[in-house]
Amino acid sequence: MPADQTQNPRIRTKLMRINEKIDDDFFQILERLRGGKISIEKFQEVSLAFFENVRLSKAFADDIAIAAGSDEQRWLVRRHTDNCRYTILFYRVNENEAQPPHQHHNLVSTQVIVSGRIHLREYERVERSDDGKLRIRLVRDAILGPGDVVQASEWSRNVHWFSGEGGPAVIFQMNARGYDTTVFNDDDEGAYGRRYLDPTNVSEDGVAECEVLEPEEAFLRFKGHSLGEYPVPPTVVSDNTLVTIAI
Predict the structure, then answer these.
(1) How much is the pTM?
(2) How many structural domains comprise the chain?
(3) Mean pLDDT of residues grouped by 10 in the chain (247 residues)?
(4) What CATH number corresponds to the domain at position 106?
């Protein structure tokens, strides 16, 4: 659904444990996106520069330490603005602890590796077949370390899959949902706007025809397995360029 563009939005702050100025400054960037004053692409560029300027490792040292020592997500912000909502948090991914492959619905996200390393695969959605399977194309298969960035949106690198590599990693995450005015599938929200996939059957041209999985089946199938256990043709990845910020 398109974002509500009313001048006096209903704002519901579910959680806020962040410096007030950082919170307000970033909220103003989100409001520019919600009001259609900047594009999704420009928002990703501006928000990434904002987080680099904040210097995550210094501004959130205590929160990073809490996330590193816990299996629970360290939530900083949870806020709804009319039909849009966004969250900011840190979380830990253990070695070979896979976040099963999944797509998102109407999401704009930025993730930054704060410590450790992850093995990441990113995909573009191609089409959904008549039998409900999703065809996706692998565009990146890389090991990321501190300062490296993962950004996704409805129309760019929407599907990803990653696991901790060589030890635990801590990741900063900002998710904004409901801000795009067009979506890949109107009825494809799934639980928390996410649907799990099995992209392991990859053709030589890098396209995988994916079975859509229930969450329980996805975690049963992929949790505890590194991505390296699922090789892909070496010629299919189109872009392993790293975007990195100072943290």
Answers:
(1) 0.91
(2) 1
(3) 62 96 97 96 97 97 97 96 96 90 94 97 87 86 95 94 94 96 73 82 85 92 90 71 90
(4) 2.60.120.10
